[in-house]
From TrEMBL:
It comes from Agaricus bisporus var. burnettii. This is Conserved oligomeric Golgi complex subunit 5 helical domain-containing protein. Pfam families: COG5_C. Residues 32-52 have a biased composition (Basic and acidic residues). Residues 32-58 are annotated as: Disordered. It comes from the Eukaryota. GO terms for cellular component: Golgi transport complex. InterPro entries: Cog5, COG5_helical. Residues 114-329 form the Conserved oligomeric Golgi complex subunit 5 helical domain. One of its GO terms (biological process) is intra-Golgi vesicle-mediated transport.
Length: 740
């Protein structure tokens, strides 16, 4: 028992001795801190050169910070001795004197409090004052370091907090203060009563319309129709101020976290961030983002419920609000690892933007209504007055405007693109109901176009201009955005083709049937008695009238820009090609028939030239010269009729003509049957077969016919002397064709 008491007395004596040494050391440290503070004040008010003053101030400040950190460590050990506890996580870091004795075993039971010893109790008040002084200095350093983003000063202050063993609570308090400051600015930005005060302060003339005594009344603080612009300006001024505060707080949080992550205690090697996490549920930056998102969501939701003005202003100005977020993200990007681009969006940015999702939802809802309203107006008159090119341009422009308003934000523009695609789907469905594809829509009977043909022309013009306007968006937006619209834009063009392709086929079919009538004329005996000498045949007159009908009554209804010119060129090419093939198989063909056929060619050329030339242009502009090889073939057909047999194999005389036409003409002059006669086809069937097969297949058909005729003539022992000459000519032309 006596041994135990002796051991206790020895332990109390050891701890008391250590306490007194530390207390005296703290006195010296606090005295030095006071001297450094006085020296700092003198250097700040001195008359030395500015550069020297700055250097001295910085040096004195650094020494003071180091001394405060040492004092904090001393205070922590003194408090530990007073409380009778030993914290292994915070071993003493002070410099010990050479004559200090080694400490006793720290595991000994310390039953006697040092406060019962008068020599120790005398220092308690001083220690408390020193602790208060060091804590105040530490807090001042922390706030100063955060405000100026001085990482060195911040590291020193955090070291002091670590030495005082208050680092976790300090960080928790700092984050709470920063979050509270942000919440106050957010709440103030959406406070309609404060907005009303700002408006009245800027424009006292409005006080008659709105009494300051009624600020708390929702009815009175809501702006009138005449004061909405002033209220909106005040709102956006407050929002800009809110984002500035958000930026400052966010940068400070990331600076604090960076210092915590990089700073270690030199003795224990404890990372300060790990120490701070003892009282935190997450990293400081994560806590800030979660709090920011929660505050934004709460106050936006409350403001929407409280004020129609705020609801309308924020939803209509959502793109402007997003731009403020973009500026916010750009400013903090230097300090944080956040990204917000078209390709990558950091989780933090997405989290914050989701907090204002109700604003986005209302904006998208209004965008949807706007597009649906445009489409509804386009189809409001139904089949009686279907939409045309102007309406197509308006629809494309409306969608382009909605996309353009959201193009700066990668997430918003995708959402608007989805809305636009849904609107296009509705538009396609309604346009499809107006399309008429029955027989009456493609039958050209009478002197004027039918109502069905007019309606189809209007719808086709509408679809074309809508497709054209929307197709231009591909070069203005990213692939990810345009891919949302791509299939719907393609469907617009497919519906347009469902209208125009059958139309062009019907036109070609009618013109081909008229041209096939030339086989009703006997070109082997004399000219057409109804046409008269030197005049064109009736079928050419009918062809001329039909071309004029298509130009003035049908094609003119289609407002499709330069596409109509390409249609005219396609029709002309088809007519020339079909006419030449029909003319090349006219058999028998006498001299007078050749003259008649030449006259018909002239009439056809004139009719096609008239069809090609736009009435608003000069006679030469847009004529047959623009067609190309088909026009050259038409001009080369006339001299072909009057060539000598030997000249038929010379490219010099047949330049510009398709080889198949030359072969046909050789067979026309000979007793050898033409391919269609050999197979029992009608002339129109044969010409259609040529159009559907390749040139080499047509050559093979002719070559097979020659071989068949030669075998048949030999078997029947016919006199083939005259025909052999034409067979030879045909073989030469075929060989030339195969070589080329």
């Amino acid at each position: 028992m006596r041994l135990h008491k002796l051991h206790q007395a020895s332990d109390v004596l050891r701890r008391t001795s250590r306490f007194v040494i530390l207390a005296r050391r703290l006195q010296a440290q606090m005295s030095e801190i006071k001297d450094k503070a006085d020296e700092d004040d003198r250097s700040g008010s001195g008359e030395e050169e500015p550069s020297k003053m700055v250097e001295q101030t910085v040096e004195v400040g650094d020494q003071k910070e180091r001394m405060i950190a040492k004092a904090a460590l001393t205070i922590a050990e003194l408090v530990s001795l007073l409380e009778g506890t030993l914290d292994e996580d915070f071993p003493a870091q002070t410099i010990r004197d050479e004559d200090d004795s080694s400490r006793a075993d720290e595991d000994d039971v310390q039953d006697i409090s040092l406060r019962s010893i008068s020599a120790v109790a005398a220092y308690e008040s001083f220690i408390q004052d020193a602790r208060t002084r060091v804590t105040v200095e530490m807090e001042r350093m922390v706030l100063s370091g955060l405000k100026s983003l001085n990482q060195t000063l911040l590291a020193s202050s955090l070291q002091t907090a670590y030495n005082l063993r208050v680092l976790p609570s300090l960080i928790q308090g700092l984050l709470s203060d920063l979050s509270h400051a942000v919440e106050e600015r957010i709440q103030s930005a959406f406070d309609l009563s404060k907005i009303s005060k700002d408006v009245l302060a800027n424009d006292p003339s409005l006080s008659g319309q709105q009494s300051p005594a009624a600020y708390r009344s929702r009815v009175r603080t809501e702006p009138t129709s005449t004061t909405v612009p002033q209220y909106a300006a005040a709102l956006w001024t407050r929002l800009e101020s809110m984002f500035e505060a958000m930026t400052d707080c966010c940068i400070r949080v990331y600076t604090l976290e960076k210092v915590l992550r990089m700073k270690k205690d030199t003795i224990t090697q404890v990372v300060f961030l790990d120490e701070a996490m003892k009282s935190l549920e997450n990293k400081p930056s994560a806590i800030f983002w979660i709090s920011l998102a929660r505050f934004l969501e709460k106050h936006v939701r409350d403001s929407f419920k409280a004020s129609t003005f705020l609801q309308n202003s924020l939803s209509n100005g959502y793109p402007r609000l997003l731009r403020l977020f973009h500026e916010f993200f750009a400013k903090i990007a230097v300090h944080a690892d956040t990204m917000y681009t078209s390709m990558v969006q950091s989780p933090e940015t997405v989290l914050v933007l989701r907090s204002i999702s109700n604003i986005e939802s209302l904006y998208l809802s209004r965008s949807t209504n706007k597009l649906n309203e445009v489409i509804g107006q386009v189809f409001s008159r139904g089949a009686r007055a279907p939409p045309g090119s102007v309406e197509g341009v308006n629809v494309a422009r409306a969608m382009a405007n909605e996309l353009d308003a959201a193009r700066f934000d990668p997430l918003l523009v995708k959402a608007v693109a989805k809305i636009a695609s849904s609107a296009l789907d509705i538009m396609l469905s309604r346009a499809e109901n107006l399309v008429l594809i029955d027989r009456s829509a493609f039958s050209f009977i009478g002197a004027t176009a039918s109502q069905q043909q007019f309606n189809n022309a209007q719808v086709a013009s509408f679809l074309y201009h809508c497709w054209m306007g929307l197709s231009k968006l591909e070069g203005e937006y990213s692939k990810f955005v345009f891919d949302i619209l791509r299939s719907y834009i393609q469907n617009i063009y497919h519906l347009y083709e469902r209208l125009t392709d059958p139309l062009l086929s019907a036109i070609r079919r009618d013109l081909g049937a008229i041209i096939a009538n030339l086989h009703r004329i006997d070109f082997g005996k004399s000219v057409d008695p109804l046409a008269g000498m030197g005049r064109s045949s009736l079928y050419t007159k009918e062809l001329t009238e039909k071309l004029g009908f298509f130009k003035s009554e049908v094609l003119s209804q289609y407002d499709i820009g330069d596409v109509s010119k390409s249609w005219s060129a396609l029709i002309v090419n088809y007519v020339i090609k079909t006419f030449l093939f029909h003319a090349s198989i006219v058999k028998p063909l006498g001299e007078k028939g050749k003259l008649q056929l030449t006259s018909d060619m002239t009439e056809v050329e004139f009719a096609l030239n008239t069809f090609m030339v736009d009435s608003s242009q000069s006679h030469k502009a847009g004529g047959l010269e623009t067609v190309g090889s088909e026009y050259k073939a038409l001009r080369a057909m006339r001299p072909l009729l009057f060539l000598e047999n030997d000249q038929l194999t010379s490219p010099k005389y047949t330049a510009g003509l398709p080889t198949l036409i030359v072969l046909h003409h050789i067979l026309v002059r000979s007793p050898i049957p033409l391919p269609h006669s050999l197979h029992g086809w009608q002339e129109a069937e044969y010409v259609r077969w040529i159009d559907e097969h390749s040139e080499m297949e047509a050559f093979t058909l002719v070559d097979t016919g020659l071989s068949h005729w030669e075998k048949a003539s030999t078997a029947e022992e016919k006199n083939t002397a005259e025909a052999s000459e034409y067979v030879r000519l045909a073989r030469i032309v075929l060989q030339q064709a195969y070589r080329t």
